[in-house]
Each structure stands twice: as C-alpha cells, then as structure tokens.
Amino acid sequence: MKDLFGKAILDYQLGNYTEDIKTETSISEEDDLPLPYLFRDYDEMPSLEKKALDITSGSVLDIGCGAGSHSLYLQNTRGLEVTAVDISPNAIEACKLRGVKNAISLDVMTMTSNNKYDTLLLLMNGAGMCGRLEKLTAFLEKLKTLIAPGGQILLDSSDIIYMFEDDEEDGGVWIPADKSYYGEVDYIVKYKGEEEPAFDWMYIDYDTLKKAADYNGFKCTCILEGEHYDYLAQLSL
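That's the SAM-dependent methyltransferase sequence above. Prediction below.
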C-alpha cells in the first residue's frame, strides 16, 4: 500500500495542500474528496457524527481515526480519554502533530484485548473497513474483545441500494452478479499522480448490520437516520 490517503492528510497538516484526494469505486465514477473536510470542526460535521460524539462516553477507541478530528473534539472539548488508531502511519503522524495525545498506527484486527474501552467509535462508514460481508462476523468478534462491560460501539454507514435502482417505472433494482452483497465495492484512491491498488470496502444497510449483530450476540439500535440512506447505529453486548 502506498498510503496515499495518509500522505494527503499529512501534506495538508504540513501546509503542503495543493490538490484533493480523488476516489473511485467499482460502482461510481471518480470524485474529489476535499482535504479540508477531513479536518472539520464539530460545527461542520454532519448530524450523524455530531450525535455519535454527543453520546460517546468513558474511555474511547477511535478506529480508523483518519485526520483525528473526532478524537480531538472528544479529547479537548469533552475531556475524554481517547486512543486513536489507523492503519495509515502518515495519518497517525498528522494526528500527533494536531495534538492527539494517544495515536497509534495499527490494524484493529491485530489489537490485543488487554485494554477495554467504553466506546468504540467507527465513523465515516467505519463498518466498511472489514471489506466484505463474509468478514463481518470476524470483525464484530474482534470488536467484542475490546469493549468494556456496559460499553458500546457507535458506527455509521449507508444503504447504497439506491445506486442500483432501475430507471424504469416498475421500481426494480439491478444488482451486480460479481459481488455476494450489493454493498461491497472495490475502492481506489488517487493523489498527486499516484494511484493506490484497489482495496475491498463495504457499505452495509441497517437491516443486514442488525442481523449480523444479533447473530454475534450484540443488541443493535438505530440511533439516528440521515438524509441520504445513511444511519448511526449503536451496538452493545
């Protein structure tokens, strides 16, 4: 991996912002992801993220923290103890430069269960990092080992079934045959003339998440629905 996403974040933090990240998926055309958006303040965040941060409590594990905007708010404004983790070393370096006190570069699937957290935070479609629906059980089982008694997982995602809607009046949908679940996509990141190899990503609808959560011993609650097929869910044991 070239860590282009993290490189872009670090460039922005170091004052080397000259262009935005370009993203593309197997079901969508190339689009710009503005770097300033990743550095947004609480007031600039969408309602789902604000709600998640409002109900976050206790010790926090911010999984896939990116530029660390959620961690900084929880640390500096809410006064919570936050551990920010991301697979990107460059993103973690940016987090440290921004003032995140405890930022670590690692894959959450490799974390040991020595530490338990009251809130596991997976925002900006954090559930998608497991990549494929068949890996969701293992992902949830890993998260289970990191939750303190009485703790919670807060995650948001989207139901992208609307992207397969038929233009005809019968309201049908077209589902690609090369994926076991319509929310699975191949994700590509481009930055400053370089391109990351495509990696697995997933958008999961709430009903499918709830079924998986129930199967793995979680109680799943929809906390808030967004304006465009998105939602915030809370999982607890």
